[in-house]
Amino acid sequence: MSTRPARPATAGAFTRRSLLVAAGAVPLLGALAGCTDPAPGADAVTPQQVDRLAGQLAVQEELVAAVSAALAAAPDLAAAAPALADQCGQQLRRLQEAAPSVTGSATTSASAGAPASSTASAAPSAAPADPRAELRARLAAAADSHAAACLDFTGARAALLGSIAAGLRGQLVVLA
């Protein structure tokens, strides 16, 4: 049996072990750097953004009411999209948590910043001819409104509005 002669370590060369240790330390340092407090004012919002967020709250509140009414009126819709009401309610709670001290009624603020279509802002009709089509229209209008509002924000609020819009678009596929 022959054994390979050991290579002499050259000065300044990295060993496999030192590279592995360094590779493990880099993500740890990055994670520690990310755990620092954000800079003051990094997540501050302007008064216009507060109004815009209040408008999006109104859009989502109207959607939650419309979904509840549609699912109660049409049991086949409730069977087709069992998680729709829960998802819309969770999205509303997340928007409420992200809203920095939104005061006043959401419907009053909605006129200040939400580009909601008349379909999303109209009161739910007593008996729509096609509840599935009506619900799809309301979901699409709310998704459009959240996606448009997303462009007015940065950071976590932009991500939240974008993810809500995407989630609503996913529900449209379920209801297709």
TrEMBL record:
Positions of the region Disordered?
99-129
Judging by the UniProt lineage, the source's domain of life is: Bacteria
State the signal peptide span: 1-33
Keywords tagged on the record: Signal
Coiled-coil segments on the chain, per record: none
Q: Which InterPro entries match?
A: TAT_signal
User: What protein name applies here?
Assistant: DUF4439 domain-containing protein
Organism, scientific name: Klenkia brasiliensis
